[in-house]
Amino acid sequence: MVVGMLDSIHLARWLEQFRNQPISFILFPSSPHRVVHPMLVRLAKDQQEATYQYVGPAPVASVAFWLVDKLLADGLRGFWLKRIIIKSRPHILHALEFQHAGYIVNRALKRGKPANLSLIVTNYGSDIYWFRRFPRHEAKIRSLLSVADAYSAECQRDVGMARELGFEGEVKLVAPNAGGFSKSQLEIGSDDSSIRSVISIKGYQGWVGRASIALDALEDIAPALRG
Q: Are strands 51-54 and 92-96 parallel, antiparallel or unpaired?
């Protein structure tokens, strides 16, 4: 069972990696999605070895449901997810991202995790690095990590932070968590940096994102990058 943002390209790419493997996926939405990502729609429709099944609130009602649940600290979706876990008895529960998916999973498992269920939590970007600064978020993060069996992140820095916050389980390979990339695509080029001509920036600008700082840095050193 995967809890994640059904409108997200990151979740879609991650799930697409397993389309040729005999795995049954149950997908529970963690955000107020009005539209399921087209790649996920295609996966669910053109199922091959893997199967993909949606559960949870219908898209037409998801925004209202999400707003009400925010006032209840994820209590509604936590209860709903717990009922689905009891009914479907998945072998693995995977929370892809902390502040939406992880907190719902944390609420669902508040009174204990089934003995036969393995919990994986995946860190997207600043899930721990930024949100641990706020007491209410830190408490939720600690609670989630305390019941997690495995943890994956995109940055080695976050592994140390997870350990500091009480995680004692298995650490998965540190790699881009969006998935959908081949091994060759992830390999760093062996060419000398002086002959490379492309700079790639990953991120966004907002309350958490600080992509503009990277853009400012490039602007400052633009003369040195000519050509």
A: unpaired
* 34 and 66 Cβ atoms separated by less than 8 Å: no
CA distance 211 to 213: 5
Cα-based angle 6, 8, 12 (whole degrees, multiple of 5): 80
Cα gap 226→162, rounded to integer Å: 40
Mean pLDDT by 10 residues, the chain (227 residues): 92 90 94 84 86 78 78 89 95 96 95 92 92 96 97 93 96 80 67 77 83 94 88
Give the chain as a DSSP string: -EEE-TT-HHHHHHHHTTTTS--EEEEEE-S--SS--HHHHHHHHS--SSEEEE-SS-HHHHHHHHHHHHHTTTHHHHHHHHHHHHHH--SEEEEESIIIIIHHHHHHTTT---TT-EEEEE--TTTTTTGGGSHHHHHHHHHHHHH-SEEE-S-HHHHHHHHHTT--SEEPP-S-TT----HHHHSPP-S-GGG---------BSSS-BHHHHHHHHHHTGGGG--
2 and 25 in contact (C-beta within 8 Å)? yes
Give every CB contact of residue 139 below 8 A, 6+ residues apart in sequence: none
pTM of the model: 0.85
- Encoded tokens for 58: 């219908």
Residue 70: per-residue pLDDT: 82
Residue 54 CA to residue 68 CA, distance in Å, equals 21
